[in-house]
Amino acid sequence: MLDDFFIRALIAGLGIAIVTGPLGCFVIWRRLSYFGDTLAHSALLGVTLAYTLEFNIAISVFIISSLIALILIDLQKRTNLPGDALLGLLAHSSLAVGLVVIGFLTFIRFDIMGLLFGDILAVTTDDIFIIWIGGPLILIILKLIWKPLFASTVNYELAEAEGLNPDRAKAIFTILMAGIIAISIKMVGLLLITGMLIIPAAMARNISSSPQMMVIYSVIGGLLSVILGLLTSLEFNTASGPSIIAAALFLFILSLLKIKQSIKLKN
Amino acid sequence: MSSNQNILVKLKQAGLRINNKWLVKDVSLQIEKGKIVTLIGPNGSGKSTTAKIALGIYKKINGEAKKYTNKVGYVPQKISIDWTLPLRVSDFMVLTENLIEEAINDALSLTGVLHLKDKNLGDLSGGEFQRVLLARAISKKPELLVLDEPVQGVDFTGEIALYELIKKISDELNCGILLISHDLHTVMSATDHVVCLNGHVCCSGSPIEVAKNNEYKALFGEQASQILSRYEHRHDHIHTNEGKIKKN
After folding, report:
1. Which of A75, A135, A245, B166 has a CA between 20 and 30 Å from the CA of residue A255?
2. A155 and B84 in contact by Cβ < 8 A?
């Protein structure tokens, strides 16, 4: 069954959606969309490194993205530049350097479109392994740091004062972000990973009244987006990443109708 | 002062300097189990900063600050909550510690907001939110309570009731309380130890000692001293000082 490329993509995609659901909620709550983008853009460097050294893509992307996150934290301490400027600086320069390096690697044929927008055909059994081992690992760690991370998202000083160590939780969360980008890059593509994180979570925000509910709806939204998106991709021969994100957008628009209804009810 | 085991927080000439400006300097105080320590002082005198130093929120401080407990309840002066979070009162109650339903309900009833339990935090009024903040802080039965103007925005009758509640909590839980308040009536009547701040410690001691202090009078005016005299007179707590205070 795993021979079928579509089944492979589906299993991989569902594994990714289960993880992007809860992480995406935190990306929205903590306003980290651009941070996610920066890590994702830097992933291109990781991919080129993987090709050059004939190394596993997910692992090398994970290393490079974590490194970029560390550099960002360091720059934040050392310069007076605002956070968004630093994010832009790192995102675009690492994307540019990645593309330049690709230019030099003439001996390897690159499917740039596949890298940027995801390639349903590229998912191998190894990728499925990495997703289904890495994904649950990310979720378990997220569960362990949930309390301090969530409390400091609501209010940093409360969490710190009441002894929850929010700084450590934040650092671990950053690593988890690098992790999800590493395992989902082949499938969704590096330009669209942030979309996979925030669109289902944004949809969930529209229809939930508690944090737990938002996480659950976000996962469900992600799973539906993957199924819908991949079916579309198969049917119309479109790139897998954009198809999944477009499906997520469709669900988001549906969730707006629910808001409209509840506003009507209030009036 | 009592034995060392009772000490929850100890500041020794603690201070905080940011961008070459002292926010507060040379503060020494200690908070003990079952005692209420109050910080008073004008705006910008470093009260909230001192509370945060005591809580260990600031990492790079001058001097020494030691916290001997991790069971802490904190009501900050300002709290900005991001409304991108769908957060009900019941979710907020278990923010830093998992509590059983009964503990949540008890705390919310004590501060008079049990009926708001399922409401969205963003829909509360200022006074209601303040009551929820206080409920959350006491619900975990802390050893140390730090209350930074805990009754701001609460209606007049509620204010009195909440201060009574704070006093009761301090007795029942035998927890130490660091209170910041502008209400000198309360400070002077329900407090064990007063620290008067103005960038540094102006004076400190029992309410009566502070009220007699000239620096306190200079900061708050003659009328403020009379608050205490009226209070003392009414309740007749300390007879020896009464005559002197009356002269004010």
Report:
1. A135
2. no
How many Å lie between the alpha carbon of A247 and the closest alpha carbon of chain B? 23
Asked whether residue B237 is assigned to any structural domain, the reply reads no
- Residues in chain A within 8 Å Cβ distance of B88: 209-210
Task: Please tell me the distance from the alpha carbon of residue A153 to that of residue A166, in angstroms, as a whole number.
Answer: 9
Q: Quote the DSSP letter at residue B120.
A: B
Tell whether B112 is covered by a domain. yes
Is A157 within 8 Å of B76 when comparing Cβ atoms? yes
**So where are chain A's domains?**
5-261
Partner residue facing B85 (CB), from A157, A161, A211: A211
Please report the number of interchain residue pairs, chain A to chain B, with beta-carbon separation below 8 angstroms: 71
pLDDT tens sequence across A129-186: 999 999 999 999 999 999 999 999 999 999 999 989 898 999 999 999 999 999 988 8
Provide the domain limits for residue B118: 85-141
Contact A210 B91 (CB under 8 A): yes
From B89, which residue of chain A is nearest by alpha-carbon distance?
A210
Q: Which of left, alpha, beta for B24 (phi over 0: left; psi -120 to 50: alpha)?
A: beta
How far apart are the CA of A78 and the nearest CA of chain B, in angstroms? Answer: 15
Interface residue A157 vs chain B (CB under 8 A): yes
In a domain, B6, yes or no: no
Q: Is B210 domain-assigned? A: no
Superfamily of chain region A5-261: ABC transporter involved in vitamin B12 uptake, BtuC (1.10.3470.10)
* The pair of three-digit structure tokens given for residue A198, joined into one six-digit string: 């925030």
Using a CB–CB cutoff of 8 Å, tell me whether A88 touches chain B.
Answer: no
Q: What is the ipTM of this complex?
A: 0.82
